Amino acid sequence: MTQLLVYMFRTLGEQSEVSLTWLHALNDPRLAHAIDHILDDPGALHSVESLADVACMSRSAFSKHFHDAFSRSPMALVNHVRLERPAKMLNTGQASIEQIANRVGFSSRSHFSRAFKKHTGISPASYHQ
Questions:
Q1: pTM, full prediction
Q2: Cα separation of 45 and 64, whole Å?
Q3: What is the pLDDT of residues 69-128, one digit of tens each?
Q4: Does domain 84-128 sit in CATH 1.20.1250.20?
Q5: End-to-end CA, the chain
Q6: Are 34 and 40 in contact (CB under 8 A)?
Q7: For burial by CB atoms within 10 Å, which of 6, 29, 60, 104 has the most?
């Protein structure tokens, strides 16, 4: 599914009437591979170094290309994904808040709850209901 979305975004990025600059970044397979890696497992122990390795780039080159393409750091995107994915998981009610926190890479429920509330404006427990 992720590969299909990346393909669709690459196709959109190639169309001249599309003005979403981040779509053009997906034309760089190195960055696309790093994004794929983040989306496949947001709970993994991602670091700029590990993502640069996935992209087959040096840490500094990867950071620069990533920031130029997405106007944010690689870790800012990782954190964004780690906080957006739980919202979907909380809606299903199939896992506890602690289980969800662990799946998306938070070491504790309290750390996750503070970050989630800061990101969404509502606590996971309130969102879950």
A1: 0.72
A2: 21
A3: 888 899 998 998 888 888 888 888 778 899 999 988 898 999 999 999 998 899 998 876
A4: no
A5: 29
A6: no
A7: 104
